[in-house]
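Ex. 9. Protein: Lytic murein transglycosylase.
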Amino acid sequence: MRHPFHRRTGIHLLASASLFCLTACADTPAIAEAEPAKPTTLQTAAQVMVDPVVMVRSFDDWRADFRAEALAQGIDPQLFDRAFAGVTPDPDVIKADRSQPEFSRPVWTYLEGALSNQRVSSGQRKLDEQRTQLDRIEQRYGVDKHILAAIWGLESNFGQNMGNRQVIRSLATLAHEGRRPTFAHDQLLGAMDILQHRDIEPERMLGSWAGAMGQTQFIPTTYNQYAVDFDQDGRRDIWYSAPDALASAAHYLQQSGWQTGQPWGQEVKLPKDFDYALADSSIRKPMQQWAELGITDAKGSSLPASLSEQSAALLLPAGHRGPAFLVLNNFRSIMRYNNSTSYALAIGLLSERFQRGGQVLGSWPTEDRPLSRSERTELQTLLSEQGFEPGGIDGIIGANTRSAIRRIQQQLNWPADGYPTPELLEQLRRL
Ligand code: CA
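Predicted structure tokens for Lytic murein transglycosylase:
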């Protein structure tokens, strides 16, 4: 019985169809998201609908239970009381937790923000400022310092924007009445462990509304597993020590299978009449085999022979009309940090922009309008009605939905890229 306080006594959770998703569910994540997403005026009534979580138990009762549990796990009572002094539920956190934006940015718009000139020049300056430490970190963990700087830049704008909310208050709010109370409860216990370890004082433990902390935006359990004290002052300080933050990110990537000296991937060019159904993250082939299928680098030259044995997947972030990329194992390590292909692509390209590369040669299909959340839900409903089994009806285009889209595209004799478009939705409405 790990969580005795999660008995349903006195708590009525009304079921809801929407997905419980704290971070990194969208294809295009927010950049250095520190503040709750503001609802757009274009939201439809369906989207404003929130999970009707009715809490009978008061925050004070919840805190008393949580205190007993934390103390039973060895948390010092004085520390607990200091960390919770004056803590009340944060209404902004609840609002952010329940907001589900109707419209998402297309990948090219996301990349434009992620790879802005300002971010590139700040990154180059930071790489210069932290050169000695970054070289040492690269040597110790075997992770490319440009990748580390790119993560630093996207997670917290190089430490400028780590979120200004008290982590304990945010997580307590979410553990009490968030959409994923068990997850938040575990993170809150993890945060108490960090305080007990004296890595940071409660007042200086800042993060995003979702409890992502410091310059690396680690959640507490990730911190407890991977954070390191690189500057050796006795504290693992991902908030106010850039070397600690960067080394912690390097340690996390190393433990996520980072392969030293390998690229994340590269842009490629596909031959005419290519079978787009091969662009699926579950289909991995040695680069040599992709070359045999006629794939070249973005300029039309042969793929690098040095990588011919390396396993790669073909990524079409905007469908067959947009640029194509072959992504290697390190791309998957970046996705362990943030489970979004757009994010991993942004990190790879940003790391190259710091070195005056990273330009995408293919053109983005900017005339394509991305589907809204309600359209994506409708698409899934129609796919399901037609027997194409898209997985859940949740408005999120995951692997099952992509493969359902491919199957109907194949049946229609369309390019089977698994990419949802308004044309496909129109077609399905007519079936
Ligand atoms: Ca330190």
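Check your answer against this statement. The radius of gyration is 23 Å.
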